Each structure stands twice: as C-alpha cells, then as structure tokens.
Amino acid sequence: MTLLGGLILWGLEKNLWYLDAVFVAGSAVCVTGLSTVDFSLFRVSSQIVVLIWIQMGGLVLLSVVPVTLRFLYYQREKRRNPDVLDEKSHQTIRILKLIIITVFVYLVTIQLIGFIVMGVYLDANGSANRVLKLNGIDNPWWWSLFYTMSSFQNAGFGLFSSSIIPFSNDVLISLVIAFLIVAGNTLFPIFLRIIFLLLRTFTRNQRLRSDLDELLSRPRSYYYLLFPSNSTLVLFGFWLLVTVTEWMLFFVEWDRPVVYASTFSSGTKLMINFVQTISARTCGLNNVNIGFLTTGHIAFLLASMFLSAFPHMITLRSTNEKRRFTSKSVITKFAKKFLVRDLVWLYIAIVIITFIEGASVNILLTSFLAICFEVSSAYGTVGLSVGYPGQNYSFCGSFTGVSKFIILLTFIAGRHRGLPETLDPAISSFSRRKQTERNSMTTSENELTIH
C-alpha cells in the first residue's frame, strides 16, 4: 500500500520527489499524519487517494479482516463437510457474523454522524464558512468528510496548513473531532463491549442472547479487540488517568497566548486543552501551536506518544485465551520486554538521524529535542510535530533523504508493533480444532485397519 500509494501520488503531483510521495502514502496507510511536504497544496485527486489510504489503514476496518476470513473459512467447511461441524461450530459462525455486522455498522454510523453534523453546521454557519474560505476551502462538505475520516482513523492529516487551529475555539467542531478520535481508536473496545451488552439486555431472541453470552464471556476467542469486563474497565481507567493527567499539564501554558494563537476565555481554553489532550496520544491533529509549548511539556508529550499503544498491547496479550490466567508478574515481564524493544528502536533511529542531520548543521539542544519528538511521534503513529519555522510541514520535512526514509521505517514499525507474537486463538482456534479432528480421524482409521 505504501509503495503503490507513492506511485499514484508521484504521478498526480508535479515536482513531487518520489520519496516524499512514498512518505505521505505510508504516513496515510499507517494513520500517522507526518508529512514532509505541505499536504494542503495537494490536488483534490491526491487528497482523495490519501483519504482512501487512511480508511484502508484504520484500526477498526483492519480489525474485522481476520474475523471475516475466519467466517469465510467456516462457511466453506460448512458447504464441503456439513456433518463435521458441531453445534459449537454453528454458534461460532453466528457470533463471527454478528461481530462483522456490528463492527461495519459501527464504522459507517459513527463516521456518517460526524460527517453530517459537521457538514450541516459548516454549511449553515456563516462565520465557520468564512474560516473555510480564508483557508482555501470552498466546499464545507468536502472538509467535513475529510476531517471525519481522518479523525476517526486517527490519521492526523488535514486540509488546513495549520491543522485544526482555525477552529480551535469552535465548540461543536472541536468536540465532534474529539469524539471521533476516541471512537475510532482508544475507546473502541469499550464502546464495542457496551454495544454488545445493550444488545444482550434488550434482545428477546433466545439464540441471539445465548450467542451474546458466549461472546461476552469469552470475547478473545472471537475478536481480538473485544476484552473481558475486568480488562475493559482497567483499559478505560488507564485512559481516563492519562487523559486527566495530560489535560492538567496543559495548565502550564495557560497564560501564553502564543500557544493558543489568540486570547480566549477560560472555558474555551479548558475545551482546547481537552481536545488537544485527546488528540495528542494517537491522532496528531493539533489545535494549539505545538512548537511553542514549554520544553518540559514537549518532553512529556514525547513520552506520552511513545507509550500510547502500551495499554492496548498489554491488554491484548494478557487476555489471550492461551494466557487466561496470566499472573501480574508475567504481565509485568511482557511490559518490560516491549518497553526495552521499543526503546532500542527509538534510540537507534534518533542516533542515526542526529548523526546525518548534524553533518550539515550543528544540532542544537532544541533541534535534538525536536528530532526525538519526531521519532517518538512516528513510532507511536501519532503525527504531532513541532513543525519547521516558515514551512507548513512536519519537522522531518527539513531532513535529508536518508533521515526521511528512517522516519518512514519508524512509523511502519510502530504501526505493526501491536501485532501478537504468536497466532492469536481468535484467528487460529478453528484451524487447530480441524487439524485435531483430522488427526483423530486418521488415528481411528489406522486402528480399524490394524484391527
């Protein structure tokens, strides 16, 4: 997808270096948002390609692919060997179908609501429409569609050269974008479990109720982004703790108008800080000037972006059906292992980029912090950047070709760091059960032959 998207963008955009085209395509499909060129200057056709790549790389859509493949495998076996499938297998088919339908309805419904709400508002609100026109956007519905999909997929791409700063004080736009961000990533497992619980509560179909009981009691046997109730509560609690901590940290910028791009009321600042806190962990859309934050705040965000995927990764592994009774010590061991592995990757990338960029210009302490921030943002697939003075692209846009390529490898590696180390039972259980049945049948035939 990265190489193909790069070829398409390279053909559509004149005077675009192929490496920059590949970088943008990779950043889109890895839902990162970093860009080495001014994306707001791209043609509409190129922006549509990037939007498609963003949708294809989104967490929710990708998560349903293995479920769909498993469902199709069951259906094939059902047609070929209908007598082999027991009642448990038939229930599994129904549960997989229920997951596929629910996730697709969720995917379409949430984005459709966001698109309509922001589109109607922008089309009817005169001041909001003027903001669009001042930033070179004539069609409010196109803006609404792009930012809905970019927010929900946590991609961080935008049609404004200044991200969502022009709408930073707009309550409706800001809160809708914040909701889309959490609905498409960090809180998706929580929302999905709530949906299944509501279905279980209000359905009168006994078969459906039985299927939901099975799904809710053993969720990781069917879908790797649906967790048991305790793990779901822990995941939500951790998200709430981190969100409140980061939101309170923004108070260090309270009396700095340069950060907020204007002077706002206290209530508006609280809202701006909240939206930026939501976006800082996974999305990369910014409604404040990141480059003007205090050094300590940038350092904190650097660590936050690096750790953004850790709660999900640990929950994913600790709820594996193979490790249903995983002890806290083993979970701690997992966390340390992932932390060390990721730190090594970040350290090597930072050292190489610093050496390369330092060969042409002396790296100051602020520049070194900006490099660290860029690498952490890439590995966390967040997309926040301190920017480059006088340019409307990420700080990595000022790098040489080799350094850009390292950033490209970094966000590709970061996008895949959540993959399980072994084949997850949510995907492999049926294959293994079938293999066991075949081995058992073969053994029985051999015993009959010997007899």
Ordered list of secondary-structure elements with their pairings:
Layout: H1 2-12, H2 18-29, H3 44-56, H4 59-80, H5 87-124, H6 126-134, H7 140-152, H8 171-183, H9 188-202, H10 206-217, H11 229-249, H12 257-260, H13 266-282, H14 295-306, H15 310-318, H16 328-358, H17 365-379, H18 401-415, H19 425-450
Give a quick set of tags describing it.
19 helices; globular; 451 residues
User: Could you estimate the helical fraction of the residues in percent?
Assistant: 55-70%
Question: Nearest-angstrom radius of gyration?
Answer: 24 Å
How many domains, as an integer? 1
Main sheet attributes: strand count, strand direction, barrel closure: none
Tally the helices. Answer: 19
* Overall pLDDT confidence: 85
The SS-based structural class is mainly alpha
What does this structure look like?
There is one protein chain. This protein is mainly alpha-helical and 451 residues long. The chain has one domain (2-78, 85-427). It is 68% helix and 0% strand. It has 19 helices and no strands. It has helices at residues 2-12, 18-29, 44-56, 59-80, 87-124, 126-134, 140-152, 171-183, 188-202, 206-217, 229-249, 257-260, 266-282, 295-306, 310-318, 328-358, 365-379, 401-415, 425-450. Helix 4 packs parallel to helix 19 (425-450) and helix 14 (295-306) runs parallel beside helix 17 (365-379). The chain is globular and about 70 Å long. The N and C termini lie far apart (57 Å).
